[in-house]
Amino acid sequence: MKLTQKSLKSVLLASTVLILPAEAIAQDKPELMTVDVEEITVTGRYVPDEKRATSEIANVLDSEAFALAGDSDIASAIQRLPGLSRTRDGYVYVRGLGDRYSSTLLNGSGIPSTDPLRRVVPLDIFPTSLISSVLVQKTYSPEFPADFGGGVIDLRTKAIPDDFVLEIGISGKYNTEATGKTGLNYDGTGSEIFGFGGSRRDIPEELLKDVTLASLTPEELEAAGEAIPNIWSIDSEPLYPGAGFDLVWGNRYDVGDESAFGFFTAVTYDINQRHRDGVRRTVTTSNAGPVIRSNAAPEVCDMPEFDGEDVSGCGVRQSNTDISLNGILSLGYEFNADHSINFTGTVLRDSSKRALIEKGQFAQEDALRTRSFIDWIESQVWTNQLTGEHYVNLFGDSDTFQTTKINWRANISRSDRDVPLRRDTTYEYNPQLDADLILARTDSNTTVYNALDEETMEFGLDFVQPMYIGGFLADVKGGFTYQDKDRSFGLVRYNFAFPAGISTDLRALAPEIIFGPGNIRPGGITLTEIFDASDFYSAQFENIQGYLGADIEISPRLRFAFGWRYENSEQVIDTVDRITLDPLLVTQKGEYWLPAATMTYEIVDNMQIRFAYSQTVNRPEARELSTARFLDDERNISVQGNPELRIAEIDNYDARFEWYFAPGESLTIGAFYKKFSNPIERSSRALGEGRLITYVNGESGELKGIEVEVEKILDVQDWFGWEFYGREFYVRANGSYIDSETVTATADLGVVTNAVRTFQGQSKWLANTQLGWRGDVDNMSLILNYTGRRQALLGVFGAGDEYENPPLLLDFVYSREFEVGSNILEVSLEAGNLLGDEIEYVQDGVITEGYEIGRTFSIGFKYKF
């Protein structure tokens, strides 16, 4: 930001004291002429970082923080901030509120989500090597979108460097639960190693003639069934170490006396294999207590009813191969010190190949079944953003108005998510034949193709006008944003139907033989479509936004920021009623004037206190208003929307005390309270042998908590008199206590077990501790992360709520630089989850899901030219 002499920000510059020790000079050099110099003091206040300089309650992580903690993705990095926690699938909860209550921006613009079940993009797809800093703002200010509950997360990509930079890095990773062990896999394509599924998985042309199959002749139907790749079986294969590569390249060139051109580009690639051996159960309730409805756990194979039988391998086994390939290109041109434009293009690709086997009791106590799942999920987010920054003297040589700062942006983003050829089969053990037979039912096998596309266009302009108002220094700010979002989703689901009297000999064979071309024919096994009109929907979202506010320094110690935001939105979902099959057009409009105000009072030079109040909203997303069903890939649970959802409204209250007792050292203590009307939450219903997740509005809700954060440089050398070769020891620690309560809507009473409960995903206790050193050539950190128990799913029909017990994580990071000629070689060592803690879900005292995640060790080499 360009600062003027009278700008508000200039008052926050560091204090400077200039003293010329003339007497000392005179004593050392008596022959020199001495000059009396008056002591000059420039007043001001020391501002160590953006956390203090901003008018709001916020935290900021930069590249140095990423390096010290050794975090490779943004989700891992920001979970170390006070009041933040992450889920295992890369989403971040701010102050105990689910990801739906957070807003994620990239360089100030919205990002479309790749997940049909989430309103925000998972943050683990953003490598820290592409991000210069992350702002997590917990109080609302009107320049941000009104969809705000827990906070806003603004990711800032790396900009054009001041000098030439070229870095090449490689890394390797070992996991104790996966690497070197035998895992699960299935037949794929050679391009998978780079995250591309290949055309083999594409829906065949024979199916595209009519995806409903209704108009196909028997011959065409046979050809369509035979055209689908005959891939079903899961094989046992070795699991390999993970690997990574990254490249960073950039430079700046002067053009004439005032102009300059620069570029920055980076590419990152990672491939990792994960494996889990665990359990999965569903629970219902009875007068006698909890009842296990389905049970995939090792002990099932040892039950008395299977004594003497040749059964083994009960439980859940799952292997994933995760591939990420990301790139960024930034081009900038600086016309002069007052005008510049910048283009940033970002591509983030994330692919996952999954093989899953569940074996245990399903449906009835004596039924031992084996369910197998294979799928490939390919997600991509790309953004193209053009921005400009201009400083314009609109009012000439005025004592009232200073130079005006104008920022504009035009952003086009797109997300794609393809799940081609998702397949599952179910076999049941037959004790008479001592063999597993595929069920002779239509749900014994399923083949699914689905795709999600979302495109967002956003245009905005912001200005900041430094000025004097009645003798008070102020920054008047305002702007507008236009956002248009289009989403489409489609899913087709098929199975192969068996003819009457199919032989048990055929049903005992591998699915590649059962569904081989010789058996697919008229009168034999035939392809059928499980049609559900609600599996297709389209959605449009338009939002016209504007805001106006001011940041006024009323006195040298009192600062007041306030403003209003106006939003006029319309969301339209074109879907089908799942029950009546009638066309369903859901239209949801919202028009709001939302106030926000923050007061900052400086008690003494290095202490200040803030108070804030704001009103915000939380809108349902398109997939939450559609009746289409999706699969939660992590939990293997079906999820369906609710067209009756309403917009939630939130009142936010915040206070924080801040003490900056030295450069790089601070203590903050904060408290917050939020009141919700119509809070949106996940609910649960019974669905066959499992459960169905849906969305509901609660009657009301409230959230309150306390956050404490301290950063301190440790004077270890002075304490013990040891020599540490210039290393600076430090400790960073934070803790949060959060309490919440939501009240179930009247319509759900009698279905939801607990009418009053906590917010989903909210942990009562969160804590982080980071202890380490910063040196001239090396850095070390020991990091402990604690996330308390949190509600995962609501209990229904008498069953209790399900809770997740996240692992206690202890990580170690060390890096050191070595001179290699005129260049630098950086070597890094990382160890994750040193305590070996596991993930566990519990409902009514029963472990509904649990597995080890293992310890992870990695080594990396980066050569810096």
TrEMBL record:
What residue range is the signal peptide?
1-26
Keyword Signal annotated: yes
Question: What are the record keywords, sorted?
Answer: Cell outer membrane, Membrane, Receptor, Signal, TonB box
Q: Where is the TonB-dependent receptor-like beta-barrel domain?
A: 394-787
Record-linked PROSITE patterns: TONB_DEPENDENT_REC_2
* Superkingdom of origin: Bacteria
Q: Tell me any Pfam family this protein matches.
A: Plug
Q: Where in the cell is it found?
A: Cell outer membrane
Q: Which residues form the TonB-dependent receptor plug domain?
A: 51-152
Q: What is this protein called?
A: TonB-dependent receptor domain-containing protein
| Native organism | Kordiimonas lipolytica
Q: What is the lineage of its organism?
A: Bacteria, Pseudomonadati, Pseudomonadota, Alphaproteobacteria, Kordiimonadales
